Amino acid sequence: MGSVQDREGAGAKLSRSEASCVCGELRVTLKGPPSVVSSCCCRHCQRRRGSLVAVQAFYDVEQLVTVMGLSQTFMRSGDSGANVTFHFCARCGTTLHWFPEFRPGKVAVAVGAFADKSFPVPERLVWSEFRHPWVQVPPGTTEYSGNAPYAAPNIIQDDRRIRP
Ligand SMILES: [Zn+2]
Ligand SMILES: [Zn+2]
């Protein structure tokens, strides 16, 4: 695995970033840029966020350098039948990060928790079948009516190479 240092050139601003819950009790620090930034309009995300779109950044678990503060967990079964374990602040209730079994070795972090306007635009919006019609899809974001293919575009290409 390449060192994180190698990847810090282009995304210098994202070389180390912290995401925090509303009250500041629960914080995570991540090293290096996310592998995928994704948005989702599924009903679960809408209820979980209390919002119409959830935006999350996926990282390799090795990039999760620190987790500070107490979290509680909520587990739910995803569309694939695999579990997702959400970590939320026991004090203010913010869901900060979660571990999707369908993406082994990945951690997802709520993009809003970074409070960083320069965070990359999501590459994709999934479950747009539940998107409120007035919610706009940003230019450069690929929309999927249901779930998106498992992996990031570069990895999808790899899959095609393996299974033409
Ligand atoms: Zn909190
Ligand atoms: Zn969702």
Explain the overall architecture:
It is built from two helices and eleven strands. The protein is mainly beta and 164 residues long. It has a single domain, classed as glutathione-dependent formaldehyde- activating enzyme (gfa), CATH 3.90.1590.10. Strands 6-7-8-9-4-3-10-11 form an eight-stranded mixed sheet. The two termini are 26 Å apart. The model is unreliable at 1-11 and 152-164 (pLDDT under 50). Residues 21-23, 25-26, 89, 91-92, 94 line the site of one zinc ion.
Tally the beta strands. 11
The CATH topology is glutathione-dependent formaldehyde- activating enzyme (gfa)
Beta-strand percentage?
A: 25-35%
CATH homolog superfamily: glutathione-dependent formaldehyde- activating enzyme (gfa)
Count of separate structural domains: 1
What ligand species are in this complex?
A: zinc ion
Write down the Rg.
16 Å
> DSSP helix count?
2
User: What is the CATH class name?
Assistant: Alpha Beta
- Percent of residues in helices: 10-25%
Helix-strand topology string: EEEHEEEEEEEEH
| Class inferred from helices and paired strands | mainly beta
Largest sheet: 8 strands, mixed
Strand order of the largest sheet: 6-7-8-9-4-3-10-11
Q: Low-confidence segments, ≥5 residues, pLDDT <50? A: 1-11, 152-164
Oligomer: single chain
Backbone shape = globular
